[in-house]
């Protein structure tokens, strides 16, 4: 009788959030054994905040003892958009430091073969020459608006190098630009720019009210579809073994203004009402273009990014289909239109949304 070999276990923290959801989609839809597909001898575990509080050392130990992962894709974080980052700097710093320290510590203690952590372009210095690349992470302080989150994430890179130098650990990280897609957090108070704009525009259409975009609309950003990021995480798990992070992004020539994003959202939602910008609200950093030269070199130039308009249309369609069931929209009214009434999904007023999900920080 043939002996059944034990399966490798890939543990994805923050596995029920935007990128975790996308990775699960890719693992389930790409051909087994392909460049972005799962291996036959693998078991994938997608961990959500209901499974454990990764800020707690003993709960984190329990997760590693239960699953004994071979590999970890570490996406879990306390995250938010510009205004949450500005208001809750200490919470974003401390909670993320605890999460990251616990995950890396127990990955080392349990002999995990490889960890890929998710960082963010907001870890880069505020005053730095563009485009951003992997060599510029520690050349100065991050932008004031999100320094708590940014320093917590930046320290993951420091920890990765320290574990590697002292213990030989294969710990590395990815730096995505602004990610969006199905199963994003669309809550108006804590979401990032694209999901927030989609949700606001959808509500304006449903309620026949004006659609107002916070800020001038002038800042520029690079966006990447969550399903594309998911493929790149699988690629990095298979093929990349250096400590230095890799920026996961489209080309630096693909920056798009917030106004262009809002225009595209209006078109995708089919909104025909009054539409304006409120320049009295903060814009955040004007631009922070990132180079994907290293990524494309490692990929051999063979990767097709989903066109922005296609990705946006699919994201809007997903929210429309899931709005009244399982979409994360923050406060939810018990009725047919899903408009807010003050009830929350575990989020108290005056505190940051404690969501263990993967999304990198964005300063919109």
UniProtKB/TrEMBL annotation:
InterPro entries membership: Epimerase_deHydtase, GDP_fucose/colitose_synth, NAD(P)-bd_dom_sf
GO molecular function ontology, one term from the record: isomerase activity
Signal peptide start-end: none
Biased composition (Basic and acidic residues): 345-364
Keyword Lipoprotein part of the UniProt annotation: no
PANTHER family given in the database record: GDP-L-FUCOSE SYNTHASE (PTHR43238:SF1)
UniProt keywords, alphabetically: Isomerase, NADP, Oxidoreductase
Top-level taxon of origin: Eukaryota
SUPFAM superfamilies: NAD(P)-binding Rossmann-fold domains (SSF51735)
Protein name: GDP-L-fucose synthase
NAD-dependent epimerase/dehydratase domain segment(s): 10-243
Pathway connected to this protein: Nucleotide-sugar biosynthesis; GDP-L-fucose biosynthesis via de novo pathway; GDP-L-fucose from GDP-alpha-D-mannose: step 2/2
Species, as recorded: Russula ochroleuca
EC number annotated for this UniProt entry: 1.1.1.271
Database matches in Gene3D superfamilies: NAD(P)-binding Rossmann-like Domain (3.40.50.720), UDP-galactose 4-epimerase, domain 1 (3.90.25.10)
Stated family: Belongs to the NAD(P)-dependent epimerase/dehydratase family. Fucose synthase subfamily.
Coiled-coil region list: none
Pfam families in the record: Epimerase (PF01370)
Region (Disordered): 331-364
